[in-house]
Amino acid sequence: MSLEGKVSVVTGGTSGIGAETALLLARHGSRVVVCGRSAERAEAFLERGRSEGLELEFVHADCSVEDDVRQLFATVVERHGGVDKVFANAGFEHAENHEDTTKEIWDRMIANDLTSSYMTCRYAIAPLRARGPGGAICVMSSMVASIAYGFAAAFIPAQAAKEAMVRNLSAELGPSGIRVNGIAPGSTRTPSLIRFFELYSDGAEAGEKWAAERHPIGRIAEPDETAEAVVFLLSDDASFVTGHTLRVEGGFCSQ
């Protein structure tokens, strides 16, 4: 697999699955621009890249803010002449059930997860089309789009909506030679999952044990395991794969 000469954009790319995907894209030769909201996390991420001699850049952007997303892609085009690969990864989580999900929680969840992915894809289309056939988008979803949890009343519908968007957008962009796929991880050892466990369970260790017991493979995932799948979907190795959401969830949804 080679991504030499390609320009990739990873939203929410300074930690977790986004960071591992950005690093892997760069290892395969792509020039990578990540965005996020935390300068502190960005500096730690960029230092990881510098230690490997990788070409990585950071643009401060909140993907729930339309002007930020528009400016992100304008900046990448200005600096690098175009965009070839996009991982719409920025997102948000919560655990409240339907009764406890206030409109404020719902609106925040949809804005930071579903709407941010929609806007990332929207502003990626023009620069991807300008490059000609061969572009690719991957949208972050979750295994919970396919199952009923009984909680996370806004998060789960947002994931299902993103997978529907992937299918629809693949039909729209297919004639331009641009592929669109989704990725649906299971429980993955990321900073956001650790925070989630600390908020909604008896701590990180108890939360991880609970999640591991529910995956037939007997553990939770590492971020690089999902990153490998994302990079495959973005690469020409997946040249005839589009409109598909790949589940990387240790068999959870097979039960």
Write the layout of secondary structure elements.
Blueprint: E1 7-11, H1 16-27, E2 31-36, H2 39-52, E3 56-60, H3 66-80, E4 85-88, H4 103-131, E5 136-140, H5 155-173, E6 179-185, H6 191-200, H7 204-213, H8 223-234, E7 245-248
Describe what this molecule looks like in 3D.
The protein has 255 residues and is an alpha/beta fold. It has one domain (7-254): Rossmann fold, CATH 3.40.50. The protein has eight helices and seven strands. The chain has helices at 16-27, 39-52, 66-80, 103-131, 155-173, 191-200, 204-213, 223-234, and strands spanning 7-11, 31-36, 56-60, 85-88, 136-140, 179-185, 245-248. A seven-stranded parallel sheet has the order 3-2-1-4-5-6-7, with helices on both faces. Strand 1 (7-11), helix 1 (16-27) and strand 2 form a beta-alpha-beta unit. The longest helix has 29 residues, at 103-131. The protein is globular. The protein starts with 6 loop residues before the first strand and ends in a 7-residue tail after the last strand. The relative contact order is 0.14. The mean pLDDT is 94.
